[in-house]
Amino acid sequence: MNPFCEIAVEEAVRLKEKKLIKEVIAVSCGPQQSQETIRTALAMGADRGIHVDVSGKDYENLGPLQVSKILAALAKKEDVRLIILGKQAIDDDCNQTGQMTAALLDWPQGTFASQVDFQEDSLKVEREIDGGLETIKIKMPAVVTADLRLNEPRYATLPNIMKAKKKKIDTVKPSDLGVDLSPQLEVLSVEEPSQRQAGVKVETVEDLIKKLRDSGRI
């Protein structure tokens, strides 16, 4: 599991332990192997899982927008009021899924969360920005993305791993949710950058100017 997603699962489980939420549903999109990731979340304390079966060419084209459409459709189907995700993947580092999910649902969002506090029907989210920490208040339902300092995920103990095997995982297909996974981007080519030439040392400013003139730089 993506480390950021582990933090998101941990935060959801902690909110349930504080009796602030009723149920934690873990979701993963991908082939059959994705259920292993869901089992990890169940062993950490999630109540049930939903595996969105995406394989073959659809899986190859699965990007942040397609995942966001799936999550938005599931949120409506399950009637959830809070979605917690990792702030970004660790392969493409896109950092887009949370924001796109919020946009599709027209929900407020608290990204890069380092602290989340419930306040009746709203959330106070402390988020990390370039200049320091920013605190915002957003109304529920909402989307939150987890940053590294939000918490430290627990280890899944052996008893909880065994219990996780008995927890329910529902399998659905994107078509069951009315989601179209057609790609919106097409990769035309991937090429290595041109090889850089070795640098040249010069003794004087005059030599430098001559070199720049000879190479057409000035």
From TrEMBL:
The keyword Transcription does not apply. Signal peptide: none annotated. Residues 1-181 form the Electron transfer flavoprotein alpha/beta-subunit N-terminal domain. One of its GO terms (molecular function) is electron transfer activity. One of its GO terms (biological process) is amino acid catabolic process. GO terms for cellular component: electron transfer flavoprotein complex; mitochondrial matrix. Keywords: Electron transport, Transport. It is found in: Mitochondrion matrix. Its main location: mitochondrion. Heterodimer composed of ETFA and ETFB. Identified in a complex that contains ETFA, ETFB and ETFRF1. Interacts with ACADM. Heterodimeric electron transfer flavoprotein that accepts electrons from several mitochondrial dehydrogenases, including acyl-CoA dehydrogenases, glutaryl-CoA and sarcosine dehydrogenase. It transfers the electrons to the main mitochondrial respiratory chain via ETF-ubiquinone oxidoreductase. Required for normal mitochondrial fatty acid oxidation and normal amino acid metabolism. ETFB binds an AMP molecule that probably has a purely structural role. Belongs to the ETF beta-subunit/FixA family. This is Electron transfer flavoprotein subunit beta. It comes from Polypterus senegalus. The gene is Etfb.
